[in-house]
Structures are given as structure tokens and as C-alpha cells.
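Thread amino acids onto this structure.
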């Protein structure tokens, strides 16, 4: 970005993107003033954004995030508060934790930026030169949880929390410090995922990507029949949740209201605008997807046993998609990042193939979920951060422009939910009321492969694979899918860690 572009971006962020919801994001609905959203006029430290715009390795992130202004607003509020808020961890420690977390996925952009911020904040240079072995024992103890959260969060237990927070232990963490560190690590794991799977491949500055695997497109299907309109799906936001959020109104509330109304799957009054004269395969694939959503809505609901069996099938088949050989697995993280990790060769394994299945069963959201338990655990220590994370999750999940490629007036809730739930399925998280057969119907195998790579080993994403998926979608829609990957990954890590903290807290 040149100086003029940076200046214009700052003005835009101050005047629009950080203050309200863009009309496209919420179907033309305004969401109120800053005071109505947050209850005060304090917003965020604009110098944090200026640092991102001044840093060449981070400029492209703002550029890509600007595709979705309402999400960018939520993200930057949370990001700024995590780095600059009034919390027990010093600023240098926060930046070093960011380096540790971003190193899990070989994210050069974030590691480079936070190395600089660490030094600017007065951090010891030898911590960067030598790595984790040079830091104090308190930070070293965080290394194990960093490994687990990034790759196998289902293995975190109350004993891990007890070990690092035991009273009287040398250089142990307080529970409030650990909660904050966990949120910070999960934030940078998911941020790294978005950068490596989307930003780096969008702008072409990916570091040493592995050889791409060929991806074959889905076969064309006949266009959707306009004779049967759709009914919108209810979003994952209830009136109970909205009341509990201290009466705040977020950008997604108007999105929810708009999607709860019935609407056709696309503008059937103008089909000629949708279909090209050549009947291109790209357009046919989008039409086929819309038709599949209509067919799924017409199907009767399955009973609980069948729903569980369908989850198990998706979980098992996901293990066969995008498998890595051991030789490829040992190539990552890249050498320059390994010194910041406790166990550099620790990596994701498919949940279906995990060890100790009896000790690490499927995570059932009905037993512990973000909206009630997870939110409450963080809120007990950091209410503002809990509110900001909640807003960010809901914005990413509910955000819609009611388009799908060239099609307009689309209810995209079913596609978004399939994407979100598939990502969490990769980490063993199950929504009991969801029919996981929708995942296999709506997400093409090549898309599932890329989603899995983006969530579980984003440093292996390649430009070729990114270009090969969702070719008939709008570029911003592809970015939205990558945002869903990052946020669903973030929430999955938090669910496991916060459950372990809650169980430890009760003992």
C-alpha cells in the first residue's frame, strides 16, 4: 500500500467500517450507533490498526478483510483489546505468546510483526534469537498447552490446568492469567489459519508451499426449478441469547431477522441474468447447490439415532480426505519457527483416528456450549473480551449478502451452517440437532479438503488449491468461507479449554 492508500484506509475505518454495519452485510439494515452497540464511546486503539497498515507483512490482511466490513469491525475490536487491554499479562509477554501461537502454523506475517512489537515493547532480544529455551519457566510451561490447543484440543484436561495453576508452584500461572493466555493463543492460531489459507494465497506471498494436489471439479448439474420457493433457516441466535447479552444490539441481529423470512432460493423473476448462454459449468454448479438445499429442506427430520450415525459417517470419511504422509508432516513447522515450540513435531491427527478414544469422546455441544458455558467462563474474568468474541463469532456465522455466485436473493444459512459444523466436526465437536448428511451433500470433496487443510494445517495451503475451489462463487464468498474456518476453529479450541477450566474450577 502506498501512503495515500493507507491514509484513505484509516479515514474509512474511522468513519464507517469500525462504527457500523455495512448495508450489504446486514441486508440494508442499520444497527445503531457505537453507544447503542457497546454502551460507551470507547472503541479501540487506532494505533494498532495503523501498525497493521504500516507493516508491509500485515497490510494485505486489512486489504482482504475489507471484503467484509462488519466482520473486520468485530475482528479489529477484539484484536486490539487482546493486545492493548488492561489485563495481567504485560505487553511484551502478549506479543511473545502471539509469536509462539503463530509459529504453530508457520505464519511468517504474524511472527515477523510480533517479533518487532515484542522488541519495541522492551522484550529481551535473546528470547527471539534462541527461542522458547531462553524464556522464563512460566512462559515455557505455556508451551504444552499451545501445542495441544493448536493441533489436538480434545486432549486438554483439567489436569493440564491444575499442573500450570497449582498454588505455591514455582512460576505458576493464576487462573485469570491462564484464561487470558488461552484466548490469546486460540486467537492467533485462528488468525494464522486465515492468513495462511486466504490472505497469503490471495496476494501471492506464501512461503515455500508444498506441491499442490490436483483437485477435480464437480460434474455439472441441471439448474434449479424456480417452481418451489424456500423457507429460511433460523440462525443460531436465540431470543434468550440476545437478552443475555446485556441488551446489546449487534450487527448480526438484523441479519437474523432478514434470513428468518421466507424467500426463494434466487431471483426467479430474472433467470436470464443467472444463466449464461453457454451454460457454463461454474454457473451450473451453483444452481445445483441451490437445488440441493431445496431438496434437503423438503426432507423429513431424522431421529436422534440416525443423526448420530450420520455424524459418525462424516467424522470417519473426513479422515480419508486430505491425509498427509509422515514425511510431509515432519516438514512443518518450517525451521525458523520450530524454536518457539515445545514439541515442533506435534501435529493434527484425525479425530476419528485419535488415541484413547474412551478418554476423549465426542464433544457434545448440548453438554457444554459457547453461548452459555463458554461465554460465562470467560466473562467471569474478562467480561468485555467475552462480549467481543461473542460478537465476532456471531458476525462471521450470520453474515450474509444473500448471494451465491451470480445468483441473488439466496438464503445461504444452510451452506454456512454446513461449513461451520464440518470444521468443528474435524475437532470432534458435534451439534446433536444437526443433520450431518447435509455436509456431504453441500460441500464438494475438493472444498472439504481445502477446509480441512485450512483448519488443521494451514501452512500447507497452496495458491493452486485455493484457486481451484469455489470457482463459480464471488471472491468475497471464498474469503467468507475462510473466515468461517478460522472462527469455527477458534471456538472449537475455546470449547475444549474452557470446559477443562470449568471442571478444574469446580474441584
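Threaded sequence (507 positions):
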Amino acid at each position: 500500500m502506498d501512503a495515500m492508500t493507507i491514509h484513505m484506509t484509516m479515514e474509512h475505518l474511522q468513519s464507517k467500517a469500525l462504527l457500523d454495519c455495512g448495508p450489504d452485510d446486514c441486508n440494508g439494515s442499520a444497527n445503531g450507533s457505537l453507544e447503542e452497540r457497546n454502551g460507551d464511546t470507547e472503541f479501540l486503539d487506532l494505533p494498532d490498526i495503523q501498525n497493521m497498515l504500516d507493516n508491509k507483512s500485515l497490510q494485505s490482511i486489512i486489504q482482504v478483510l475489507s471484503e467484509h466490513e462488519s466482520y473486520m469491525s468485530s475482528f479489529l475490536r477484539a484484536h486490539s483489546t487482546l493486545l492493548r487491554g488492561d489485563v495481567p499479562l504485560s505487553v511484551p509477554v502478549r506479543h511473545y505468546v502471539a509469536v509462539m501461537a503463530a509459529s504453530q502454523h508457520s505464519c511468517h506475517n504474524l511472527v515477523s510483526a510480533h517479533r518487532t512489537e515484542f522488541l519495541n515493547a522492551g522484550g529481551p532480544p535473546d528470547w527471539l534469537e534462541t527461542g522458547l529455551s531462553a524464556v522464563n519457566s512460566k512462559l515455557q510451561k505455556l508451551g504444552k498447552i499451545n501445542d495441544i490447543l493448536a493441533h489436538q484440543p480434545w486432549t486438554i484436561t483439567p489436569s493440564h490446568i491444575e499442573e500450570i495453576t497449582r498454588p505455591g508452584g514455582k512460576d505458576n500461572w493464576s487462573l485469570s492469567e491462564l484464561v487470558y493466555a488461552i484466548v490469546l493463543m486460540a486467537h492467533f492460531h485462528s488468525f494464522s489459519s486465515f492468513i495462511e489459507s486466504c490472505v497469503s494465497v490471495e496476494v501471492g506471498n506464501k512461503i515455500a508451499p508444498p506441491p499442490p494436489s490436483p483437485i477435480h471439479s464437480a460434474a455439472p448439474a441441471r439448474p434449479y426449478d424456480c417452481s418451489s420457493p424456500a423457507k429460511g433457516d433460523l440462525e443460531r441466535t436465540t431470543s434468550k441469547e440476545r437478552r443475555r447479552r446485556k441488551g446489546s444490539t449487534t450487527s448480526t441481529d438484523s441479519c437474523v431477522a432478514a434470513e428468518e423470512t421466507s424467500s426463494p432460493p434466487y431471483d426467479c423473476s430474472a433467470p436470464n441474468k443467472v444463466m449464461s448462454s453457454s451454460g457454463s459449468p461454474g454457473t451450473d454448479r451453483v444452481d445445483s447447490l441451490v437445488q440441493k438445499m431445496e431438496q434437503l429442506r423438503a426432507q423429513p427430520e431424522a431421529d436422534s439415532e440416525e443423526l448420530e450415525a450420520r455424524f459418525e459417517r462424516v467424522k470417519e470419511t473426513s479422515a480419508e480426505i486430505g491425509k498427509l504422509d509422515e514425511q510431509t508432516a515432519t516438514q512443518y513447522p518450517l525451521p525458523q519457527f520450530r524454536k518457539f515450540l515445545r514439541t515442533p513435531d506435534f501435529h493434527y491427527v484425525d479425530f476419528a483416528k485419535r488415541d484413547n478414544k474412551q478418554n476423549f469422546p465426542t464433544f457434545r455441544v448440548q453438554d457444554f456450549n459457547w453461548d452459555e458455558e463458554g461465554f460465562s467462563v470467560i466473562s467471569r474474568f474478562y467480561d468485555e473480551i467475552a462480549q467481543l468474541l461473542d460478537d465476532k463469532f456471531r458476525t462471521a456465522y450470520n453474515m450474509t449478502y444473500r448471494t451465491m455466485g451470480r445468483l441473488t436473493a439466496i438464503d445461504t444459512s444452510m451452506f454456512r451452517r454446513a461449513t461451520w459444523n464440518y470444521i468443528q466436526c474435524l475437532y470432534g465437536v458435534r451439534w446433536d440437532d444437526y443433520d450431518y448428511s447435509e455436509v456431504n451433500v453441500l460441500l464438494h470433496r475438493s472444498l472439504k479438503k481445502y477446509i480441512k487443510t485450512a483448519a488443521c494445517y494451514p501452512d500447507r495451503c497452496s495458491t493452486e488449491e485455493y484457486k481451484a475451489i469455489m470457482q463459480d462463487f464471488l471472491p468475497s464468498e471464498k474469503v467468507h468461507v475462510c473466515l468461517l474456518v478460522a472462527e469455527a476453529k477458534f471456538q472449537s479450541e475455546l470449547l475444549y479449554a474452557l470446559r477443562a477450566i470449568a471442571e478444574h474450577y469446580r474441584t
